[in-house]
Amino acid sequence: MPAPGELTFAVPRGAKKPPRHLADLSPAERREAVAALGEKPFRAKQLSQHYFARFADDPAAWTDIPAAARGRLAEDLLPELMTVVRHASCDDGDTRKTLWKLFDGTLVESVLMRYPDRVTMCISSQAGCGMNCPFCATGQAGLDRNLSTAEIVHQIVAGMRSLRDGEVPGSAGSADAARLSNIVFMGMGEPLANYKRVVGAIRRLTDPEPDGLGLSQRGITVSTVGLVPAMYRFADEGFKCRLAVSLHAPDDELRDTLVPVNTRWKVREVLDAAWHYAEVSGRRISIEYALIRDVNDQAWRADRLGRLLKNHRVHVNLIPLNPTPGSKWTASRPEDERAFVAALEAHGVPVTVRDTRGQEIDGACGQLAAAER
Ligand code: SF4
What we know:
Blueprint: H1 4-8, H2 27-36, H3 42-53, H4 67-77, E1 82-90, E2 95-102, E3 107-115, E4 118-122, E5 126-128, H5 137-141, E6 143-146, H6 149-164, E7 180-185, H7 195-206, E8 220-224, H8 228-236, E9 242-246, H9 252-258, H10 267-281, E10 285-291, H11 299-309, E11 314-320, H12 334-346, E12 351-353, H13 367-372
Helix pairs in contact: 2-3, 6-7, 8-10, 11-12
This protein binds iron/sulfur cluster.
Iron/sulfur cluster (SF4) binds near residues 132, 139, 190 and 365.
């Protein structure tokens, strides 16, 4: 039976399947795949070492594998998944957005952001998105297809390789600023609508080297618009990842229009699922709230939000809206933003106004791909 999130949001018919890749497979499946090619199973470990620990997907660099076997292994297990269409940088080089073309011509984006003490990467889990949020560039274009596990993982492998090779020098100088510490599934797509592949990607990202990239689960944030059954299922995985809920409105009437999936699962149900995740994982929930002028930024809505969230393990991220081209909506006035923050704080709810990196390079998800189209 399909996963709850996948049941309703099927991939469009006719979408082609990406080629199989090492990062799609568990360590046991890799050994089987290598054996099926007539190679010794330990070659799976060697390949994993090259890909996950050294980011070396060019067979010429695999000097511990006989030259005669390299081509076959590369073709079968490390096919080229994506190519860079272009990079765009801003914030003095500290933010770099990459537009990728996948094997079938589909476009997706990832963003690498350097801060003085950490590096965060924002990745896509789907090409396009089927959730249809009216203020979002990706939502306007609809869903092309789900990304495979390897297509998700490879965005990060490529980012880690760029950092290692000094391709994203930025202005931040410390050693910590060269190491990827945080991954946010907040690029194109609704991660929980591509449930199995996203969970597979989290395993590859967090399995110790060389089976995976050895990153910390605590550094991973998975966002959702509130696919309630998938949220409960995600809690059962036992991850220590952070869950971010894109709420954008505290009342069903407005949320039904801003986040159309709310007509299916209401604010109360979404928050109950979030509190369950917080309980099981021990992690605070992030509530994402794009502040849109005169739409969802009224003081009474802030008060209502505060009442819903108070006394829970939660943090609110207010996101000044980055308007998409041609959109009728724009960011809140500074005084309304301040009043919103104050109203939440009055309920004892921790809140931050997010630093909106990458605005001058079409920083909102989907804008670079929309411009390319
Ligand atoms: S805001 Fe997120 S969930 Fe909504 S359409 Fe855009 S990418 Fe999809």
